[in-house]
Amino acid sequence: MKPSQSFLEVRKLNKTYVQRRWFSGKRFQVKALDNVSLTIPPGRTFALVGESGSGKSTLAKCLTMLEEPDSGEIYFEGSDLVVMNRQELRRMRPQMQLIFQDAATAFNPRFSAAEIIAEPLVIQRRGSAGERRKRVLELMEQTGLPVDAAGRPASEFSGGQRQRLAIARALALEPKCLVLDEALSGLDLPIQLQIVYLLQELQARASLTYLFISHDLGLMAQIADRVAVMHGGKIVEERAPADLFAKPQHAHTQALLAARPVLENCSAAGDA
Amino acid sequence: MRFFLRRIVHATFLLVGVSILSFVLMELAPGDFFAEMRLNPQLSAETLAGLRQQYGLDQPLPVRYLHWVQSVARGEFGFSFAYNTPVAPLLWSRARNTLLLTAPAALLAWLIAIPVGVQSAARQGEWEDKIASAGTTALLAIPELLLALGFLLLSLRTGYLPAGGMISIGFSELSWWGKFQDITAHLAIPVTVLTLGSLPILVRHVRATMLEVLQSPFINAARAHGIPRRRLLYRHALPAALNPLISLFGFSIAGLLSASLLVEIVVSWPGLGPLLLEAILGRDLYVVIGAILLSTMFLVGGTLISDLLLFAADPRIRTR
After folding, report:
1. Angle CA(B213)–CA(B218)–CA(B221) in degrees, nearest 5?
2. A17, A62, A100, A108: best mutation site toward chain B, by most B Cβ within 10 Å?
3. Confidence band, pLDDT 50/70/90 cuts, at residue B316
4. pLDDT (tens digit, 9 = 90+) per residue, B96-119?
5. What are the φ/ψ torsions at residue A54 (nearest 5 degrees)?
6. CB distance A100–B220 less than 8 Å?
7. Which one of A28, A89, B145, B166 is most buried, by most CB atoms within 10 A?
């Protein structure tokens, strides 16, 4: 197959986890990704929705090559990540950064906020110590973190601040794509909204591509340009959010939509 | 700082408690140092009673305890019946020899355990990990005593290393460098045995704590930045896994001491082990109590060192 010209394209990705029973030694397989293909255009927001265990996080890990897929291709700006060796991958990694659901465990507990943000720069050997310090403060300002908290450990930050810290760290390497694995799930609604605004602002400024991974179909419908629904390791439906809500094709999407908690009196306002 | 003052006060209470307890327990055990002399027909009952009086063994327990406390205050730690000297100088030289044995063993065991544990956690399930876990299982199963005897046998057969003791004949005539070499050669077997004995538990602890840390999201985040393996393992994962290991370090110091008592006896290393064994068999009351107190001090010292290390290593504890 010829290499893809699109920004991020996944072709026929497979990943199976083998588990072994303790006593019987019986093996059983979990197909986390089953022939997954999708194309993500640059500068847009793509959402991957599905229930727990549908393979969303596995896809995120494979996309960032934290897990190696069993088979398939992942083209990032035309080059296949799967066949890259360690050095090539190391050079590619800054382009794609991850943000996790649980920001509390996403930071080295021994690092201060400034060290956390600077670490990717240190790892990729970017800039001198002074330049890095300047960049850290710049990033903290951009993400709305109090600059005077640079010396404090992440454990002293609030939940929303931690997610901002995670974003600041992810942006340190000036990536083209952010993979946000349930990044909004642990936050309460006002904070969720703040983070969404921050992300949209950053997207407008640096033309970032977002891949949101979430179980919250309603929220994704509001912020994504395209939504893909995953179920049992497969992508069962992929469309623009308006279409998805208007006439969901797949039975599972219908089930997901029906499972959404809706407040009777203000449901119309909420969907707008 | 207040934290350490409190620890020192606790340690003092602990030492007082241990000393009282060992006094009471020694009292409960039948017989004393002079009991066996009763069988000697050349010694009359009057002579024995006189000896007992001379050493104060006829006094009631609280009085003897107070006398002993006074002698501790003088830095003597009581009087040894068998050696006919105050206990303190006896203990100090023996304790120094024991430390000479346990300190390198502890250092060596940790220097080996950390890289081995880290690597086998990083390569969980691969052949490196399997070899390491087979090795630690084997070492766990072999008693240290057997190891010591095996090495002694080997050294006797080959004549390559001195079998037992701490110094060769003619030690005092050696140069400074010669003395060092001589002691090192004598140290080789007991240090090896002690290191191998404590190694498996340390390796397993390092591996287990590392495995836990390696699953944290922050490790994944660092990997996504394209971190080199070494930096990931030794700058991110190991420091985060350090706290339980530092606590274990304190205990391993105390544990090493009790293991060394046995090994010392087998290779006739002039440390606390043989002294304590003889003293218990001969009911040399104050030597036993002194040795018990000393090993309590090792335990307290070990935990204090680990607390200090925790303090130095963890910014979260420091800021408190």
Report:
1. 135
2. A108
3. low
4. 888 888 889 989 999 999 999 999
5. -85, -5
6. yes
7. B166
